Amino acid sequence: MEIETLINYYLKIFIIFTPFFVLSAFLSLTRDFQDFEKKRIAIRVTIAVMISSFVIYLFGKYIFDLFGITLDAFRIGAGTILFLSALSMLADKDDMASQSNNRDIAVVPLAMPMTVGPGVIGVLLVMGAEAGSLVEKIMIAGALFLAVISLGVLLYLSSAVKRLIGDQGLVILPKITGLFVAAIAAQIIFTGIQNFLKIN
């Protein structure tokens, strides 16, 4: 049962990271880079995502307490932002993945805001706040760690993945990911509304 829960959290977090959208942006921004540069950037992106994600996940509860925000209100807000992110993936827009002359792109824009954007931040804050026990908190942390590592491996092997799925695959997969992200966002919003209505 615990393994199933871990896998469930892992898949949810990995999908929320929108890995194939990030991969598409990564390949676009590193189009003129040497292979060793791409791998170096992939490692830096992974480290930046790992640090920022865990800071948000571990200290999110204190943010709620500081600003007096209820968990359900934040669920609705985070779900809405995540849903808008999903819509941007489903649309034919490459604004975020536009070419950049700056070769230091690992932290900005790849790690933030492309990977750890407002939607991801919101979901991680909610997960950290609603974790009921220490075991559950550790389990989510483990799932988060595995999801970031999986994303890092995907970026590290980006050239091989591109050859495997082709240009058409890079167009289709982000849209499929967008559909899953939209469904997760809708579930978060509905949960927030349902709990809010129960309280009131």
General description of the model:
The chain has 200 residues and is mostly helical. The protein has helices at residues 2-16, 19-29, 35-67, 71-90, 106-115, 118-130, 134-156, 158-199. Helix 3 runs antiparallel to helix 7 and helix 4 (71-90) packs antiparallel against helix 8. The longest helix has 42 residues, at 158-199.
Q: Distance N terminus to C terminus?
A: 34 Å
Label the overall shape: globular
What structural class do you assign from the helix and strand content? mainly alpha
Portion of residues in beta strands equals under 5%
Mean pLDDT: 88
H/E series: HHHHHHHH
Please bin the fraction of helical residues: over 70%
Number of helices: 8
Main sheet: strands, sense, barrel: none
Q: Which regions have little confidence, pLDDT < 50, spanning 5+ residues? A: 96-101
Tally of distinct domains: 1
Number of beta-strand segments? 0
Rg calc: 17 Å
Could you give the topology of this structure?
Elements: H1 2-16, H2 19-29, H3 35-67, H4 71-90, H5 106-115, H6 118-130, H7 134-156, H8 158-199
Helix pairs in contact: 1-7, 2-8, 3-5, 3-6, 3-7, 4-6, 4-8
Short description:
By secondary structure, the protein is mostly helical.
Key attributes of the depicted protein:
mainly alpha; 200 residues; 84% helix
